[in-house]
Amino acid sequence: xxxxxxxxxxxxxxxxxxxxxxxxxxxxxxxxxxxxxxxxxxxxxxxxxxxxxxxxxxxxxxxxxxxxxxxxxxxxxxxxxxxxxxxxxxxxxxxxxxxxxxxxxxxxxxxxxxxxxxxxxxxxxxxxxxxxxxxxxxxxxxxxxxxxxxxxxxxxxxxxxxxxxxxxxxxxxxxxxxxxxxxxxxxxxxxxxxxxxxxxxxxxxxxxxxxxxxxxxxxxxxxxxxxxxxxxxxxxxxxxxxxxxxxxxxxxxxxxxxxxxxxxxxxxxxxxxxxxxxxxxxxxxxxxxxxxxxxxxxxxxxxxxxxxxxxxxxxxxxxxxxxxxxxxxxxxxxxxxxxxxxxxxxxxxxxxxxxxxxxxxxxxxxxxxxxxxxxxxxxxxxxxxxxxxxxxxxxxxxxxxxxxxxxxxxxxxxxxxxxxxxxxxxxxxxx
Length: 431
Ligand SMILES: *Cc1c(COP(=O)(O)O)cnc(C)c1O
Hints:
Blueprint: H1 4-10, H2 15-26, H3 29-52, H4 71-83, E1 88-92, H5 98-109, E2 115-118, H6 127-131, E3 146-149, H7 160-166, E4 171-177, H8 190-203, E5 208-212, E6 231-235, E7 249-253, H9 255-265, H10 281-311, E8 315-317, E9 329-332, H11 336-347, E10 361-362, E11 369-374, E12 386-390, E13 396-400, H12 405-421
Parallel strand pairs: 2-3, 2-4, 4-5, 5-6
Antiparallel strand pairs: 1-7, 6-7, 8-9, 9-13, 10-11, 11-12, 12-13
Helix pairs in contact: 3-4, 3-10, 5-9, 10-12, 11-12
C-alpha cells in the first residue's frame, strides 16, 4: 500500500505542492463543516419531498412517443416544486440547456409591448442574443418586447434607486441573475434576492420576479422561490442534475408562470401533458437526490481554490471566507501563460480525456478566444470539474464543479503543480 502523498505523486502532484495544499486545507476544516451542514439540510429536504410524493419504482420507467400519462415525469415535477417551495415545475429533457430554460421562462411570460428589466446588471452572455442586444433571429426584440437594465451599485449590490426609476407601466418581468456567471461581480444571495423581490413588488405589484438560478441550487438552504421570486430556471447539467442527468433544464414557480412555459415548450392546449421522458427519469431522480452533496463537493473545491490562490497573492472572487450563493470561483491569473497552465492542470486531472491539452479557440458570443478545460462524463457538464477562461486581460479563470470534493481538491492541487512546473509561480513561494 502507498502513502496518501504517494497517491498524489502518481497523479503528478509533487510533495511540496501536496504539503502546501495540505496546510491550506487544514485551515478550512470549519468552512467545510459548514458546507456539509447545508448539504445535510438540503439532503433531508430532497429526501422528504421524494417520500411525501411517494416516488415508487414504477416512476422510474418513463415513456415514449407523446409521453401521455408519464406519471414518473409528473411526480418528479412535484418533487422539484416541493424542494423549491413553489406551486409547480417543468423538468424536461426537451429543455436543451440553461439558456433554453431561461429563454422559455421569459419568453412564455412576456407579451409584445412588455418590457423585461434585469436588475442585476448585464445578463449572462448567451442572453444577449435572446434579448436582441446582439442581432439574432427570433430575439425578444423581433417580437416588440423591450429590454431595460438596472446596473449594480459599486460593490455589486442591487441599486434600489435605479430599480425604482426603471420599473414602468410596461415592466412585466423583473429578472435577477443569482450567480455572477463569467464575471467578477458579487453573486447575489437569496437574502438579497428576497429584498429585491419585495422592492419590485412594492413598486408594481403585478410584476413577475424571475431568477436565473444557474449554479445556485443547493448552495444555500433556501431557494429564491422560497424567498419571494415567482419563477426560477436552471440547467440539469449543473447543480440540480447532480452530475448524473445527461441533459435537461427546469423552470419552477407559480402555477401560472409554469403553465405558460409548458404551453410554449410544447403547444398551447398540450402544455405539460406531452413530452416523453424516454430513459431519463432514473438519472433525473437520482441526480436530484445526489445534488446537495455534489454541490457541496464543488463548493469545497471553490473555497480551497480561493484560499490557495489568495495566499499565493492572486485576486480571487469571491474571497475564501465570503458567504457563497453559487459554485463559481474566479481567480485573476494576470497572464495568458498562467491561464493556459491552470487549464492544463484541470484537464490533466480529469477522469475522461486527461491526455488532451485544452487549446484556445473562438467561440460564438465571445469577442476573444476562450480556453476551456473539462474532461466530462457528460459533455459540457459544468457541475463536473471544469475551468473556462476568455483570453483577455486581466486573465480571469472561472473554475467550477467537482463531483467529489477529493477530485475538486486534486484538480486545484494540479493547477498549482502546473503553474510551478511552468515557472509562473516560484517554488520558493511554497516553502
Ligand atoms: C450556465 C449559465 C447560463 C446558461 O446555461 P447554458 O446551459 O450554458 O446555456 C445562464 N446563466 C448563468 C448564470 C449560468 O451560469
